[in-house]
Design brief:
Order of helices and strands: HHHEEHHHHHHHHHHHHH
CATH class of the largest domain: Mainly Alpha
Distance between the termini: 63 Å
Number of strands: 2
CATH architecture of the largest domain: Orthogonal Bundle
Number of domains: 2
Largest sheet: 2 strands, antiparallel
CATH superfamily of the largest domain: MetI-like
Strand order of the largest sheet: 1-2
Length: 312
């Protein structure tokens, strides 16, 4: 009888206080989830929305805001692969990334390491390196127009040292205009990246460098064999930011200095997005170029993350 009573007995219920705590916890979690709804709406409207619009407009023929839109299917993308201007812009973009990224990241890292040594006037140097950020894009363009002008700083220096034969209109010469764009891009990017990397290097315990110095490691070894590996993941973040800026935002440099000229010597993919949309009234075609840029950006970020991933 006792065994039968034990088997048929109903399962024990948790105490009322335990059930009440679980309900309270669920209400708290629901309240926390509700508080994220504004941020979620913001993300959907201003991130997912424009992204969906980008892909949609790339499949239509559209010549402007007040012009009608007609379906184009994939014809805009098919035209990209046979358009010589797009091919030239893709090549210029590739060269810009391949040349700019290593110089900016490695140069910024070396400058950052130098700043962590706290040389005399290092605070002034840090402040001075924010100059590209403090200058408006138009003001920055005027500075470099003066540098590269026929009677500008570079030609004046060449004439002063007896090399006047090398003087030329740097921004109007098809063989030098693109290199001038790259120089401006590097100058605009390296200083800010150096300040960011210096902030990361300052967080490394000084005893690590002191121990390496006792072991006989010079600055070169400390910089590349200690500081670089310990900052690897953050360097990857800086590289991604520089990659995205060069890929997308450097169009402003091209627009203000050369407008893609002389001829088409300095056109890049990001500049073509602007040029096709606002100068040639090919909005749908420009968005097809933007889709290609988006795909390149995603692939580039994945590659950079893999390269700079922390090694276990």
């Amino acid at each position: 009888m006792t065994a039968t009573a034990d088997v048929s007995a109903p399962p024990s219920r948790p105490p009322a206080s335990s059930a009440r705590r679980r309900r309270t916890q669920r209400r708290r979690e629901l309240l926390q989830l509700t508080s994220t709804i504004p941020a979620l709406i913001w993300f959907l409207v201003f991130t997912i929305g424009p992204l969906v619009s980008l892909f949609y407009f790339s499949t239509v023929n559209w010549r402007g805001l007040i012009a009608p839109r007609t379906p184009a299917g994939l014809s805009n993308f098919e035209k990209l692969f046979t358009d010589p201007i797009v091919g030239l812009a893709a090549w210029n973009t590739f060269l810009q990334l391949v040349i700019t990224l290593p110089i900016v990241v490695l140069g910024a890292f070396m400058i950052a390491y130098y700043l962590t040594l706290k040389p005399r006037g290092h605070r002034f140097i840090r402040a001075l390196m924010f100059t590209p950020v403090l200058l408006a894009a138009s003001a920055l363009a005027m500075v470099f127009v003066g540098v590269f002008a026929p009677q500008g700083m570079i030609n004046g220096f060449l004439k002063a040292v007896g090399l006047g034969d090398l003087a030329r209109p740097w921004l109007a010469d098809g063989t030098t205009a693109f290199w001038a764009i790259i120089i401006v891009t590097i100058w605009c990017s390296m200083s800010v990246s150096a300040v960011m990397l210096a902030a990361r290097l300052n967080s490394i315990d000084e005893s690590v460098f002191e121990a390496a110095e006792i072991d006989g490691a010079g600055h070169w070894r400390r910089m590349w064999q200690i500081a670089w590996p310990m900052s690897r993941e953050f360097i990857g973040v800086v590289t991604m930011l520089q990659f995205l800026w060069t890929l997308f935002a450097s169009a402003a440099v091209v627009l203000l200095l050369t407008r893609g000229g002389p001829g088409n010597a300095t056109v890049t993919l990001s500049f073509l997005v602007y040029d096709f949309a606002f100068n040639q009234s090919k909005v749908g075609y420009s968005q097809a170029v933007a889709v290609v840029l988006f795909v390149i950006g995603v692939i580039g970020i994945l590659v950079i993350r893999r390269v700079f991933r922390e090694k276990n």
